[in-house]
Amino acid sequence: MEKLLLTDAEWRERLTPVQYHVLREAGTERAFSGALNANKADGLYSCAGCGNPLFDSDDKYDSGSGWPSFTRPIGPDAVTDHEDLSHGMRRVETRCARCDGHLGHVFPDGPPPTGLRYCMNSVSLDFQPRSGD
Questions:
Q1: What is one Gene Ontology biological process annotated in the Swiss-Prot or TrEMBL record (predicted)?
Q2: Is residue 47 annotated as involved in ligand binding?
Q3: I need a surface site. Which of 24, 34, 52, 132 has the fewest CB within 10 A?
Q4: Looking at the DSSP assignment, which residues form a beta bridge with residue 60?
């Protein structure tokens, strides 16, 4: 996959201020405020910064956390994980593998089959309904 490298000015042109804060400055939207948290439609979630496919609705579940949660990414090369020691905690940050945009964090308290909870910011995602055949 070809990496998407843009200048800060290009990112600011491409993203809304809230998207820029989350994707480029590792911000977090308020719990239960995101448009995709309660989304139950069938489809694919991609990076709002670059369009990279990230998660399938088949792997989305209601974690009760207030953010869209998934048991796994769409494929092994969709996201990257990074140690995050901010806010006095040790967490694992999840970023888009194509543009390095901050998506959220992954926690080891999810349901089977993976036991993982990819807790993502709605504003960092775009949703595309699956087209019926």
A1: response to oxidative stress
A2: yes
A3: 132
A4: 70
- DSSP helix/strand/coil, 87: helix
Phi, psi of 18, rounded to the nearest 5 degrees: -70, -45
Question: Is 88 assigned to a binding site?
Answer: no
Residue spans per domain, the chain: 8-129
pLDDT above 70: residue 133: no
Catalytic residue list: 119
The closest alpha carbon to 84, from 119, 54, 110, belongs to 119
Pick 51 or 133 by higher pLDDT. Answer: 51
Residue 99, marked binder: yes
pTM to 2 decimal places: 0.92
**Cα-based distances in Å from 99 to 64, 65, 120:** 28, 26, 16
User: What top-level class would CATH report for the domain 8-129?
Assistant: mainly beta
